[in-house]
């Protein structure tokens, strides 16, 4: 059996980073290697190339590097513009870092050149004056051995300004006989990986997450649930499994 993990965006017009079944090795939680002709690069917040992350340079890091994922060279299906709003296209994708396409995602790149996408870097919470990326918290939660997947959103908090609400899917062999113990284990994991300031204020265990048929998590829906505005969820018919939303809402109301 072969596992294929792909990374792409609507804007890229096709898969950009993926292992090829039976050809290149797969690595759990990694999209692995860029497809032929794709030249990813990792930059820091100031747009400086992270040393050892540019394969074209021929000098690669012997350690895992992290930063913001960009593409340094055009590819055949690259977006040219946004219909009726050319400036929006330029500002969103090509103006953040000079002469680079900015994906908006953070990533890790291991010494073998495998990429692990950590999520959006522009989705940031302001918790007690600290800027914390939701993707960073999700990555910490997912390091818990009993967690399959998680999604983190912010919600209004009387003291902190914004609180952290985590929706967590546990592995099938993890029992919820003692949900409080599972919560404490996850909180300890987040505290160890990031720090106590990033510990979720609320953790809701769920069977699944609201996703489109392409696998994108609909965080708009999760924010409404976290904010207890469940009557404003909106249309869910385009989701892969709309029933999941009802289950999440019931779990929120009964917690």
General description of the model:
The protein folds into 2 domains: 6-118, Luciferase, domain 3 (Roll), CATH 2.30.38.10; 124-254, ANL, C-terminal domain (GMP Synthetase, Chain A, domain 3). A hairpin with a 4-residue loop joins strand 1 (6-9) and strand 2 (14-18). It is built from 5 helices and 11 strands, in the order ββββαββββαββαβαα. The longest helix is centred in the last third of the chain and has 15 residues, at 179-193. The chain has a 4-stranded antiparallel sheet with strand order 3-4-5-6. It has 255 residues and is of the alpha+beta class.
Q: How confident overall, as mean pLDDT?
A: 88
Helix content: 10-25%
The rounded Rg comes to 19 Å
- The CATH class of the largest domain, by name, is Alpha Beta
Unreliable stretches = none
Summarize the helices and strands and which ones pair or pack:
Elements: E1 6-9, E2 14-18, E3 40-43, E4 65-71, H1 86-94, E5 101-109, E6 115-120, E7 124-127, E8 130-133, H2 134-142, E9 147-157, E10 161-170, H3 179-193, E11 202-205, H4 219-226, H5 243-254
Parallel strand pairs: 10-11
Antiparallel strand pairs: 1-2, 3-4, 4-5, 5-6, 7-8, 9-10
Summarize the structure.
This protein is an alpha+beta fold and 255 residues long. It has 5 helices and 11 strands. A 4-stranded antiparallel beta sheet has the order 3-4-5-6.
């Amino acid at each position: 059996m072969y596992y294929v993990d792909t990374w792409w965006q609507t804007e890229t017009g096709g898969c950009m980073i993926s292992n090829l079944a039976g050809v290149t090795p797969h690595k759990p939680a990694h999209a692995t290697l860029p497809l032929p002709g794709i030249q990813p690069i990792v930059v820091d917040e100031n747009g400086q190339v992270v040393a050892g992350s540019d394969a074209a340079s021929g000098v690669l890091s012997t350690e895992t590097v992290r930063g913001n994922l960009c593409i340094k060279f055009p590819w055949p299906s690259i977006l040219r513009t946004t219909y009726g709003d050319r400036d929006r296209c330029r500002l969103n994708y090509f103006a953040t870092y000079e002469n680079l396409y900015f994906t908006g995602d953070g990533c890790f790149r291991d010494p073998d050149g495998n990429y692990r996408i950590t999520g959006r870097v522009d989705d940031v919470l302001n918790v007690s004056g600290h800027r914390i990326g939701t993707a960073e918290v999700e990555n910490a939660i997912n390091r818990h051995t009993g967690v399959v997947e998680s999604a983190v959103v912010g919600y209004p908090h009387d003291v902190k300004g914004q609180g952290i609400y985590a929706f967590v899917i546990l592995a099938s062999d993890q029992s919820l006989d003692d949900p409080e113990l599972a919560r404490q284990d996850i909180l300890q994991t987040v505290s160890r990986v990031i720090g106590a300031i990033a510990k979720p204020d609320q953790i809701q265990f769920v069977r699944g997450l609201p996703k489109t048929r392409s696998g994108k998590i609909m965080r708009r829906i999760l924010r409404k649930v976290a904010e207890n505005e469940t009557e404003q969820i909106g249309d869910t018919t385009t989701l892969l499994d709309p029933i999941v939303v009802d289950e999440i809402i019931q779990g929120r109301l009964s917690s």
